[in-house]
């Protein structure tokens, strides 16, 4: 995703060069904003599924494992 944003920024800079330095700053800010937004969504999704994969196991007195989901 980061590479796509960098390529988009490079293509935009080549096809429509900035006439004013502030325009270039705005373009860079947009690229960084999109990249960080993507990382935020990806991170939260990965954390959610990773934490859900680790379930608690408990061993009873007779030696049987009981799987406790959602604990």
How would you portray this structure in words?
With about 70 residues, the chain is mainly alpha-helical. The protein has one domain. It has 2 helices and 2 strands. The protein has helices at about 1-15, 20-55, and strands at about 55-60, 65-70. It has a two-stranded antiparallel sheet with strand order 1-2. A hairpin with a 5-residue loop joins strand 1 and strand 2. Helix 1 (about 1-15) packs antiparallel against helix 2 (about 20-55). The longest helix is centred in the middle third of the chain and has 33 residues, at about 20-55.
Q: On the 0-100 scale, what is the average pLDDT?
A: 78
Unreliable spans:
none
Task: Give the class from helix and strand content and strand pairing.
Answer: mainly alpha
State which percent range the strand residues make up. 5-15%
Helix content: 55-70%
Number of helices: 2
Mind describing the biggest β-sheet?
2 strands, antiparallel
Number of domains: 1
Strand order of the largest sheet: 1-2
Overall outline: rod-shaped
């Amino acid at each position: 995703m980061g590479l796509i944003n960098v390529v988009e920024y490079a293509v935009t800079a080549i096809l429509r060069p900035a006439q004013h330095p502030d325009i270039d700053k705005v373009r860079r800010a947009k690229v960084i904003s999109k990249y960080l937004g993507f990382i935020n969504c990806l991170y939260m999704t990965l954390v959610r599924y990773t934490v859900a994969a680790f379930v608690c196991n408990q061993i009873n007195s007779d030696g049987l494992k009981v799987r406790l989901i959602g604990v």
